[in-house]
Amino acid sequence: MKSAHLCLWLLVLSTVTELVSAFDPFSTAWSSIISNFFYKGCEDKLVAFNSSGLEDSLQTKLFGQHIASKIILKTVSGFMNNDNPKKPLVLSLHGSSGTGKNLVSSLIAENLYKEGMNSDFVHIFMSDIHFPHVSQVDTYKTQLQQWIKGNVSSCAQSMFIFDEMDKMHPGLIDSIRPYLEHYDKLDGISYRKAIFIFLSNAEGSSLTETALKFRNAGRKREEMELKDVEKLLLLSAFNNDNSGLWHTSLIEKNLVDFFVPFLPLEYSHVIECTMAAMKAQGLQLDIYIADKLATDMVYFPESEPVFSKQGCKTIGSRLHFYMEDV
Ligand SMILES: *[C@@H]1O[C@H](CO)[C@@H](O)[C@H](O)[C@H]1NC(C)=O
Ligand SMILES: *[C@@H]1O[C@H](CO)[C@@H](O)[C@H](O)[C@H]1NC(C)=O
């Protein structure tokens, strides 16, 4: 009799435990209910997407990147105009620093969110800052997954930018892979409206080589097509060096929609960037000053110094120095 009682109690107890654990505040079902209840989502913080707006930004702010510009406009517009995308938009931007990768990320953000890059829905991760210690990779993995999950459940149209992807621990990349795939829903959350952007400097030098070869063959830079550099971006992924490791798994599964090349910039592009910076800062356009600034930049390779070493980086701040100089 007593043991029957005990059995019953044990049964009740285990049922209660099961019920409680089903409503564990950390379980996904529960947290998505909470987030739906507390967050109104981000609908009222989004810009009505207008592809001519993006086209306009690309034309007036991004210079010397005819391949990147075309891919970005097509893929972002296609994605935004699709009410039911099958997977999140995943773009991998490659090129040396100063060639426009960050600029493109902010142009996309400005065309999506009212507050642009300052929006609460844009998340930037830098390996040196957010994931500095290799020994803590496991902690970072869990944290990153929770961040992505938490942010996408409060705003489906969240944007995640991973800067210096080439320095990112491959384990971390693996941890975000499930979110990039063609799942309808993962634990009750759909990631298909999110945007993931990977930035990498690692392939800069091979892009420079290709651009130089084109130049030396007497061909116009604008004749260069995606297919001329795409293989190079894909191949470098399979190199044994650390920089390649990360995107191997992304390529194998075809999770990246596009590998977007950013070519090294020449003197004429530095001039364009400078004029645009003058305009943005409300200064009088002055080609004499632009030429002075552009001429003072460092160009490479040594044998044939045609590409700006810093691209268009730092031009905004350099400008003040040259303006005072007049
Ligand atoms: C889209 O953007 C273009 C260029 O910025 C602008 O002229 C046009 O009025 C916009 N259209 C809509 C529907 O907002
Ligand atoms: C969203 O991501 C940020 C990091 O950018 C993180 O600090 C925050 O906790 C995340 N929010 C949620 C709800 O997970």
Task: Estimate the strand proportion.
Answer: 5-15%
Structural class based on helices, strands and sheet pairing: alpha/beta
**Average of the residue pLDDT scores:** 86
Radius of gyration of CA atoms, rounded to a whole number: 24 Å
Low-confidence stretches: 15-22
Could you name the CATH topology of the largest domain? Rossmann fold
> Order of strands side by side in the largest beta sheet?
2-3-4-1-5
Molecular shape: globular
By CATH, the superfamily of the largest domain comes out as P-loop containing nucleotide triphosphate hydrolases
Number of strands: 7
In whole angstroms, how far apart are the ends? Answer: 101 Å
The hetero compounds bound to this protein are: 2-acetamido-2-deoxy-beta-D-glucopyranose
Integer count of domains: 2
Written description of the protein model:
- The chain is α/β, with parallel strands linked by helices and about 325 residues long.
- It has 2 domains: about 50-260, Rossmann fold; about 265-325, no CATH class.
- The protein is built from 14 helices and 7 strands.
- It has helices at about 1-20, 30-40, 50-60, 65-80, 100-110, 125-130, 135-155, 170-180, 205-215, 225-235, 240-250, 265-280, 285-295, 315-325; strands at about 90-95, 120-125, 160-165, 195-200, 260, 300, 305-310.
- A hairpin with a 6-residue loop joins β6 and β7 (about 305-310).
- It is globular and about 95 Å long.
- One 2-acetamido-2-deoxy-beta-D-glucopyranose binds near residues 50 and 56.
- One 2-acetamido-2-deoxy-beta-D-glucopyranose (NAG) binds near residues 123, 146, 147, 151 and 154.
